[in-house]
Amino acid sequence: MSLIRLKIDTFRNIDSAQLLPGDGLNLIYGLNGSGKTSILEAIYFLGMGRSFRSHLSQRVINTDADQLTVFAVMQHARGEDKVGFRRSRNGDTEVRINGDKVKRLSVLAETLPIQVITPESFSLLFEGPKSRRQFIDWGAFHSDPHFYQAWTNTRRILKQRNQLLRDGSSYSNIQFWDRELVRYAEQVTSIRNAYVDSLNELLKGIIGEFLPRVSVKVSFTRGWDSKTDLAQLLETQYQRDLSLGHTVSGPHKADLRLRVGNLPAQDALSRGQLKLLVCALRIAQGKLLKQQSDKNSIYLVDDLPSELDADHRRLLLKQLTDTGAQVFVTAIEPSAIVDSLHRAPSRMFHVEHGRVTQVE
Ligand SMILES: Nc1ncnc2c1ncn2[C@@H]1O[C@H](COP(=O)(O)OP(=O)(O)OP(=O)(O)O)[C@@H](O)[C@H]1O
C-alpha cells in the first residue's frame, strides 16, 4: 500500500502543495523551517487524525486560514482509496474515505498504518510508560480485530470506577464494575502479550544488525503483579484506591521494558544507539503487520541523518527500503541520504518556504 497522490492545503507554512510520491523511498529536503516535517506531519494527520508534534491540532492550521485539508489517493492490492481529512479552527473534523463520511478516527488508522520516527522519538524510551504503551497498542490494534473494542471498554470502565472512588463509594458498589473490568483487562492483556511475543522474534534480528555488540531485552509487563489475580488485587487494594481516588493497578499501567544487562536501555545506550533501537522497534512493527495482515505501513522518518554515522545511516536506509514499504525521509542536504543509498531515491522533493517541487 502506498500514497500515489498527496494534496496538502493550508497546513503550517504550506499554502498548497501537490506531490506524486513514488512507491519506495521519497526524499524530502530543504533548509531549516522550509516545511519538510510539515509534509510528514500532514501524512500522519491523514492516518491518525492528529499531529505527532503538538497535542493542539489547531496549531497546525496555517495562521492565515480557518481550516486545513489533506487528501491522498492510496494504492493497494485491491485497488485505490481516496482519503480526505479536514480540520477547522473551531475543532470540527471531517473525514471521508471514497467520498463517504467516516465517524471514527480508528477507521483512518486501519486504512493507513503509519510508523513515525522523529528526533523526538526517544520519548518512546524516556517519557514514562505512556508512549511505550501506545507503541504496544498500535500493534495490538492492527494484529487483533477485538483489541479496539476491548480496550475502549476497559477505559470506559476504569473511568467509571475512578469516579466511584472519588465519590467515596463502598466496595459493594464498585464490585460490579470490577467484574467487567477484569473481563476486558484479561482480553486486552492477552492480545498485548501475544503481540509483544510475536514482535520479539522479528526484533531480535533487526537489533542484531543495528546493535550487534549490545544485548537488548524487550519484555512486556501487564500492569499488575503477574502472579496475582486482578479481581483479588482490586479488592485488596480498594482502600488504597479509595484514598488516592484512582485505580492503581490494571491494564492501564502496562509497559514495555527495554533493558541492556541490568540497566534500562536509556541509561545504557548512546543517543545514536537509542535512535537505532527506536528504528528497530518501528521497523519490526511494520514487518509484523505485513506478515500478519499483508498490509504495508508507511514510514515517516524526520531528519534521518541526525545522530547517525555513515555506516548506520546506510544500514537504516537498507532496512527501511528492504521492508518494501513506502518511505518518506527528510534531510537538510540531499547528499546525506543519496550517498548512503545503493539505489537512487524513488522521488525527490525540494521544499522552500512551504513550496514543494519535485526534483528530476
Ligand atoms: N500554523 C502555522 N502557520 C504558518 N506557519 C507555521 C505554522 N506552524 C509552523 N509554521 C512555520 O512552518 C515552518 C515549517 O516548519 P517545519 O518544522 O515543517 O520545517 P522543517 O523544514 O522540518 O525544518 P527543520 O529542518 O528545522 O526541522 C516553520 O518555519 C514554522 O515557523
From TrEMBL:
Binding of ATP, residues: 30-37
InterPro entries noted in UniProt: DNA-binding_RecF (IPR001238), DNA-binding_RecF_CS (IPR018078), P-loop_NTPase (IPR027417), RecF/RecN/SMC_N (IPR003395), RecF_2 (IPR042174)
Predominant location: cytoplasm
Keyword annotations from UniProtKB, A to Z: ATP-binding, Cytoplasm, DNA damage, DNA repair, DNA replication, DNA-binding, Nucleotide-binding, SOS response
Intracellular or extracellular location(s): Cytoplasm
Top-level lineage group: Bacteria
Keyword Aminoacyl-tRNA synthetase attached: no
RecF/RecN/SMC N-terminal domain boundaries: 3-354
Gene3D superfamilies reported for this sequence: P-loop containing nucleotide triphosphate hydrolases, RecF/RecN/SMC, N-terminal domain
Task performed by this protein: The RecF protein is involved in DNA metabolism; it is required for DNA replication and normal SOS inducibility. RecF binds preferentially to single-stranded, linear DNA. It also seems to bind ATP.
NCBIfam families: recf
Family to which this protein belongs: Belongs to the RecF family.
This protein's name: DNA replication and repair protein RecF
Source species taxonomy: Bacteria, Pseudomonadati, Pseudomonadota, Gammaproteobacteria, Alteromonadales
Gene designation per UniProt: recF
